[in-house]
Amino acid sequence: MATSPASRPGDSRPLSAVGSDPAPNLDDLLVRTARGDDRAFAALYDELGASVLGLARRLIRNPARAEEVTQEVFLQVWRTAARFDPDRGRAKTWVLVLAHRRAVDAIRHDQAASDREDAYEWVGQDHDVVSEEVIVNLEHQQVRRCMDGLTELQREAVNLAYYGGYTYPEVAELLDANLATVKTRMRDGLIRLRDCMGVAA
Amino acid sequence: MSIDLHSLIGPYALGALDTDEREDFESHLDSCATCAEELDGFIATTVRLGEAVAEEPPAALRASILAAAAQTSQERPTVVALRPRALRRRLPALIAAAAVVVAAAGVAGYVAEHQQVQDVRAEQSNVERVMTAADAVTSESQLGSASMSLTHSRSEDAIVLAVKKLPAVDDKTYQLWTVRDGVTTSAGLVDTSDLVYVGGVDGVQQIALTVEPAGGSERPTSLPVATMAL
Question: How many domains does chain B have?
């Protein structure tokens, strides 16, 4: 169990105020992990495991495969922790970017093409349902509120890319929009989300 | 070209590029300070999206991961000269870190697995102190037939770089640089096989080896042949 007084994964974590450090000790935990400190690694897992698993489950429908990818992510964190530079980024960002990339790669490379086609067809016919489902399940009030502030096309583009793992040409096809429009909507959507969440650039 | 690449910033932040475009965009980032700044904010935003869907993992997963880690050896600072990039330009760290992780998995021939430390014998007392320090950390890297071994001791505030069999560079020379927050400082010339002591490395994040005109340069004039993180 985490010994940190900070919020724990699994609880609906209150989002920290803008500008404050959401998890002051995560960077330190990752630095210690790089030195082979297995307790620091365990504590890092306790803090970030829920986010990594949740993201993997969102992207990869198969729960067993999502757990496998979660394990791969954390082993990669363990192996390559020495590459993390606390002066140049946050541990949480480092781990979650890695997790998203790994999960997306798993979708794109591991899953049978037929699975993908099925999902694709299904989403293609009914993408509104997918987007709604994602939003309804979002635990985080602020994220949900900010998602509601997007235009429909922005929201769908962001959802299908980040939570669906689709490339932007796939998103364009699903939404029956042209590529340039989709790229723009993704960027605009991120700008609006960023400003709504008060993320410091 | 770069305008076109720049339009990929949204898809890139959302992980919606294929591998080729991802790499193209990362190259573009090297030369675009404003995108790096915008991207930092976008990535921080996607992190929030990721956290928003957190789910309590089963207890067995924790046990499994910790057990697997206990049996997995860790990489020490390793060669990261995977894609030439201008060292003096400061990349957003998270992108650099993520890119390196992926590149290390995908680019053959550069990243060497660790080799047993061989007979790096101390010839000077400085070198000896570093090599025998209780907190000395050594990493080994292979670049073709050449090998590099970097030993870093925080307590000695110094590093020792041992290189072996670097390819001859005719009328040029190898030069070693330390990198602090994107600022490169010369740490002297290096022979094709050499043992180099560098003191006062507090704050140094990386060392880099470049090929320079005979006699060395005040600042790097070429892309590094190798970099190693401290």
Answer: 2
